[in-house]
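tool_call: predict_structure(chain=1)
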Amino acid sequence: MALKFDDQGAPFIEVDPNVCLKLDLSEYDDDAECVRKAREELRETPEVVQESLRELRSLLKEHSDLNISVDDDAFLKKFLRPTKYYPQSALNMILGWYKFKANKKFVTDDMSTNRIRVALEEKIVQLLPTRDQHGRRIIFVEMGCKCGNLIV
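tool_result:
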């Protein structure tokens, strides 16, 4: 059991040959309700998405010190969606993410098989078996828990 990445860069863990924990990075554009919700709550329309990507790419060119692929729409959308497609807010989130990654020991830098096993066995990280009322997966992470002498 170790953290691995698929060809799209999505992390996954093979618990055993029959069980694989994986993030689903697929788009939701085949579900009319999801498309409606994204349009109403995130301003996510094809026009807004394209304009936001264009503006964010322009803003990122001013930060040549960042090692980021400005042509990777999927990567940029990871920052645009939570900021409701406001490019400046997405840039601020990207800069904060890079600052965090540079200043702290990033979570995947020391992701060993043993640490993953302990986190799952001690229920520090739990994937809940049911989805919420909107069909979203729920991951429960016990933050700052007192785990005795466990090092996770």
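agent: The mean pLDDT is 81. Proceeding to next step.
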